[in-house]
């Protein structure tokens, strides 16, 4: 028995919307029909009238916190949060405890995802053992165990030689390097960006160069080694400029940006509230504008959430002491839809592609497609109902968001992974 999704609005390449009926069976999209509703006898029917149907959303940068930080999030709660946000494929960062730098830890995460997770989890492995920047992990063994790339996310790889060795090795086995770009010598002890907020509150700031120096260095190393180099959470005008320039030279670089870096600047921070503290930090309005322009002209390839849950107690330690990070799964699509699509700045197709088709293309994944024979990873989205962000409703253990109370449209209503309904509002 399959599922017929009837009367769904599907957005096509030229941004027009057409009504389609989709039969999901055996985990794949079996049929796509137009016109009069088909006979659904023998199948479950879901009326999607008035809702948008997209491929399941893909998020290539998330923190599931397991193993080691289960008080912040688990693979069970994190994948539920993802499903509630419309995501069916998520790629998790290895800065857990232990970090994902051995075959055993990769297997642990994949097993947990299989038994307790409800969406597809793709793990990254560390570049260096313990993310200490001193010794490369066993790239071949990690690849064989199932990682999709290497990253020391959470910290930058400080040594250029170490990064070059990592890139050369990754290139030789056809794997990407995913980089958290941050030069530690420029950020010592800072919690927020260098800018208005830091000045007003007498805080030490994190300068834009701390990110862009690594972006520039790594682009040169990527050119020298031929690796696919992917830049994490771009937040500065300088990084956008460097990546744009590198792409013009045909260097194999791709990049991602988070919703908060497209929507908020340091001038929006209301006070010493750590729900506004993340790394990279909120930058200046000029940086926000550069990230938007970079996304629009293709310099930045994809949108990711950098979903980073923390406990309330941890976030209550204040701006200086609280850990960096905000949750992202359950607000990502509504935020971007409301801010950029509903206001006519972006087409709906543009936003959907940046969260489905393009992440799949950048990482060579088979998902993110709405076509016959493709995996039945599907998301139904209500574009009409306006609702305020209420962290108490989150499926995530994390409540750490700066968007509490924001009135948004574009809420995911139903998520299907491989033909199974994994979330229904
Ligand atoms: Zn990071």
UniProtKB/TrEMBL annotation:
It catalyses: (S)-dihydroorotate + H2O = N-carbamoyl-L-aspartate + H(+). Substrate binds at residues 63-65, 95, 279, 310, 324-325. One of its GO terms (biological process) is purine nucleobase catabolic process. Binds 2 Zn(2+) ions per subunit. Keywords: Hydrolase, Metal-binding, Pyrimidine biosynthesis, Zinc. The active site is at 306. Its EC number is 3.5.2.3. Signal peptide: none annotated. Zn(2+) 1 binds at residues 61, 63, 153, 306. GO terms for molecular function: allantoinase activity; dihydroorotase activity; zinc ion binding. Residues 50-238 form the Dihydroorotase catalytic domain. The keyword Repressor does not apply. Pfam families: DHOase. It is an enzyme of class 3 (hydrolase). Its cofactor is Zn(2+). Pathway: Pyrimidine metabolism; UMP biosynthesis via de novo pathway; (S)-dihydroorotate from bicarbonate: step 3/3. GO terms for cellular component: cytoplasm. Zn(2+) 2 binds at residues 153, 180, 233. Catalyzes the reversible cyclization of carbamoyl aspartate to dihydroorotate. NCBIfam families: PRK09357.1-2, pyrC_multi. Belongs to the metallo-dependent hydrolases superfamily. DHOase family. Class I DHOase subfamily. This is Dihydroorotase. It comes from Paenibacillus solanacearum. The lineage of its organism: Bacteria, Bacillati, Bacillota, Bacilli, Bacillales.
């Amino acid at each position: 028995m399959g599922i017929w999704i009837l009367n769904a609005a599907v957005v096509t390449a030229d941004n027009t919307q057409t009504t389609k009926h989709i039969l999901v069976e055996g985990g794949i999209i079996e049929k796509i029909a137009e016109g009069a509703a088909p006979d659904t006898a023998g199948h479950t029917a879901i009326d999607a009238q008035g809702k948008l149907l997209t491929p399941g959303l893909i998020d290539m940068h998330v923190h599931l916190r397991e193993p080691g930080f289960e008080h912040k999030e688990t693979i069970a709660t994190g994948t539920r949060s993802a499903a509630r946000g419309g995501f069916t494929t998520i790629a998790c960062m290895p800065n857990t405890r232990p970090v994902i730098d051995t075959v055993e830890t990769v297997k642990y995460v994949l097993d947990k995802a299989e038994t307790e997770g409800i969406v597809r989890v793709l793990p990254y492995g560390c570049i260096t053992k313990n993310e200490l920047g001193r010794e490369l992990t066993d790239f071949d063994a990690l690849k064989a165990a199932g990682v999709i790339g290497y990253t020391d996310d959470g910290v930058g790889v400080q040594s250029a030689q170490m990064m070059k060795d990592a890139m050369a090795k990754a290139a030789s086995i056809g794997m990407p390097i995913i980089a958290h770009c941050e030069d530690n010598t420029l950020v010592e002890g800072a919690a927020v960006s260098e800018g208005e907020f830091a000045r007003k509150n007498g805080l030490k700031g994190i300068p834009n160069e701390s990110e862009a120096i690594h972006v520039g260095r790594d682009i040169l190393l990527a050119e020298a080694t031929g690796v696919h180099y992917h830049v994490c959470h771009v937040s500065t005008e300088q990084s956008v400029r460097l990546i744009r320039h590198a792409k013009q030279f045909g260097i194999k670089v791709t990049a991602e940006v988070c919703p908060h870096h497209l929507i908020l600047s340091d001038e929006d921070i209301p006070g010493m509230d750590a729900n506004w503290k993340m790394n990279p930090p909120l930058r200046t309005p000029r940086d926000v504008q550069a990230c938007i322009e970079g996304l629009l002209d293709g310099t930045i390839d994809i949108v990711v959430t950098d979903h980073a849950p923390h406990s309330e107690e941890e976030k209550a330690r204040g701006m200086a002491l609280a850990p960096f990070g905000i949750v992202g799964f359950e607000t990502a699509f509504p935020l971007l839809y409301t801010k950029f699509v509903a206001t006519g700045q972006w087409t709906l197709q543009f936003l959907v592609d940046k969260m489905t088709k393009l992440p799949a293309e950048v990482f060579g994944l088979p998902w993110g497609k709405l076509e016959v024979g493709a995996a039945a990873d599907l998301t139904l989205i209500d574009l009409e109902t306006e609702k305020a962000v209420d962290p108490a409703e989150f499926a995530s253990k994390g409540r750490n968001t700066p968007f509490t109370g924001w009135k948004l449209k574009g809420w995911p209503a139903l998520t299907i992974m491989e033909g199974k309904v994994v979330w229904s509002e």
